[in-house]
Amino acid sequence: MRKRATAKQVAEAAGVSKWTVIRAFTPGASITEESKRKVLETAAALNYTPNLLARSLATNATHQVAVFVDDFANPQKLPFLETLTERLQAAGLVVMLININNHFDHVHALLHADQRQVDAIILFGTAFRNETLTDHQLGRGMPPMFVLARDSQIDGVPAVVCDAERALKDIVDHLHERGYRRPGFMTGATVLSTALRRRQHFAEFWEEKGVRDIAVLSAERYSAQAGAEAVRQYLNSTNATDRVDVLMCENDILAIGAMDEMRGKYGLRVPEDMAIVGFDNYELGGSSAYSLTTYEQPRHQMVELIVGMITGRVDAETVSLPGKLVIRGST
């Protein structure tokens, strides 16, 4: 491989000091327009680009952010990741995506990110428990951590979330007004479900309306297949007269899988035989094939806030933002 040109070589060719070369590539640095033009022209001729890793040794900042994700079967992750990576890159930060699932040790992954000297870690949909993040191996020198799109119960780890309490109140009010009285709830992965609090608020608001008996369907993961499997088990084990009249699914991909199974294998009509509600406003759910009632998270606002916290423009504290109910034909 051809050796890269160095700042020293550019400085010698341009007839300036090495520090003038560094200032030319540093946004906001004090340098005359003539000197900057001379340096940039020489750098282009020598095919020189600054070594950001070397510069990080002096600035103590690598401008790298690690994003931890585990539930890749959930397609709603992609719009969030697109928005998140776009905003981080626009802020001059490089994203390091780390796959965390049952096959990888979470503490090891955190230590690995720290060894890469990332400036921050974003926990996005990952099943971290308090005891994991307070492991004795994780010292005080760890980079700051932030949680995106789920609650954080850990001191010193702020979260940016959609207001689950407000969301579920809006959903339950809508379903009650439509005359539904036998609700059910489909959860996703157990740890993540606890962090999302959607089931908890769903039960609380139905209880306020005098409905305490809520059927619970459990999916092992966030995927269409898991949603289909969970509703299949429920329908096979429940008499038609005893079934729920509306099923709230913890997210849209579970709802889509459940709806496909109900209509395809059992011939049930939505919403006449059973209404369906999702969460996230995944694009496919809005198609005529599903017309899924759902709740849309304020994705862009959430991402802007968490990027602002990482860059220091916004105070690092837990923030809960309202979304909006999207009513369609499934209810």
From TrEMBL:
Keywords annotated in UniProt: DNA-binding, Transcription, Transcription regulation
GO molecular function, one term: transcription cis-regulatory region binding
InterPro entries, sorted: HTH_LacI, LacI/GalR-like_sensor, Lambda_DNA-bd_dom_sf, Peripla_BP_I
Residues in HTH lacI-type domain copies: 5-59
Keyword DNA-binding recorded: yes
Signal peptide range: none
Protein name: Probable transcriptional regulator protein, LacI family
Organism: Rhizobium etli (strain ATCC 51251 / DSM 11541 / JCM 21823 / NBRC 15573 / CFN 42)
